[in-house]
Design brief:
5-stranded antiparallel β-sheet; alpha+beta; 5 strands; globular; HIT family, subunit A
Amino acid sequence: MENSKDPFCAIDLIVDKKEPASIVYEDELFIAFLDHHPLFPGHTLLAPKKHLKTLYDLPAQWVSPFFSLSQRLGQAVEQATSAAGSFIAINNTVSQSIPHLHLHIVPRNKGDGLKGFFWPRTHYENEQHKQDTLEKIKYYFSKD
């Protein structure tokens, strides 16, 4: 697979193991990891390993596996965080903080403070909390 990477892209650096990340899932096409600045603990990003800028660049044969993974990861994130639901989002160019296709899976609960697009960012309590969240998501993801 031809892969023209961006040497400044955070996701490409994570894929190449040049930038640390809490990896939830990885295969030959995709990688999922905890967001460095989560909206809520468990906020996970799913991205193709190939440097693709938007959803429109995703090869047709990858659409089904990408969204199947998003379903499985979404369920795992909800279960791992005891969330009532989730927010699943993809920005295409506008509001895309990293110019690399990535899907956000954000655990949600009623009254969590997430309103419209003015989102409060939170932090993990500590590194152990982050690691525990990561392991729970991996556990629920592997149950399928």
